[in-house]
């Protein structure tokens, strides 16, 4: 039976495996290495792990190797299908899960997270979801906003000090599935706010309005959101390289939200329109650029 998946948060630092070292997963691994954790990393494209090895991480040749090495598993894989394939397709991986604490940190649907909980428990491991809000700078500084869904007080889990290293005050939302729902709700706002702001900016540019004067008014109003200033210069310059969050990932999250909204009986007409803008942006060849590229999807017809 599992014996080491739940422990007091004040115990010795555990061994952590980060599965998926894309943009955010890699920065999370960096943060944990810097914070003194013993970190193993694995990625389907092994080249993405190389520099982490130079920083002190153990670069694993397979997910099973990483699972066998660690106490806590952080999942930064692309979607629920990738997670299930990685953890449950190979019997050796399933066996290596026993006694571990599995933490799902990407963006998936509530139902998908609950299914992972069930399969993880069958493998004699613990499971909690801990999606985050924030991006690469916040990951490096350990200031991500961490939302936790778990069947019991998450501060008792081996993973709790790991989550505290990534975000100083993780928020316990409720049972598994609740944090996944919060994350989807927040990412839906990314699409809504970005497209809304791009639409307003496009009208200003079409009428030769001084954008600084508009922003001065907006910042003093209840309509202002900090993300507008964060993305403004990229939109004005149409410079979308070096993304913190690629546009293609936003499309995946919108589709997840649409599926959940339809189940909940929520009208999806507006969001389907937003999805059309994101799809048009991808069709322009901007899938791997920063999601501020939605400005092109709005203004270039």
DSSP strand tally: 9
What is the multimeric organization of the chains shown?
A: single chain
Through-space gap between termini:
59 Å
Low-confidence stretches: 1-10
| Rg estimate, integer Å | 20 Å
Number of helices: 14
**Overall average pLDDT:** 94
Q: What sequence of helices (H) and strands (E) makes up the elements?
A: EHEHEHEHHEHEEHEHEHHHHHH
Strand content: 5-15%
Major sheet: arrangement of strands: 3-2-1-4-5-6
Please describe the biggest sheet, giving its number of strands, its sense, and whether it closes into a barrel: 6 strands, parallel
Main structural class: alpha/beta
Characterize the overall form.
globular
How helix-rich are the residues, as a percent range?
40-55%
Description of the structure:
With 301 residues, the protein is an alpha/beta fold. Helix content is 51%, strand content 12%. Strands 3-2-1-4-5-6 form a 6-stranded parallel β-sheet, with helices on both faces. It has a 3-stranded mixed β-sheet with strand order 7-8-9, covered by helices on one side. The protein starts with 14 loop residues before the first strand and ends with a helix. Mean pLDDT is 94; it is low at 1-10.
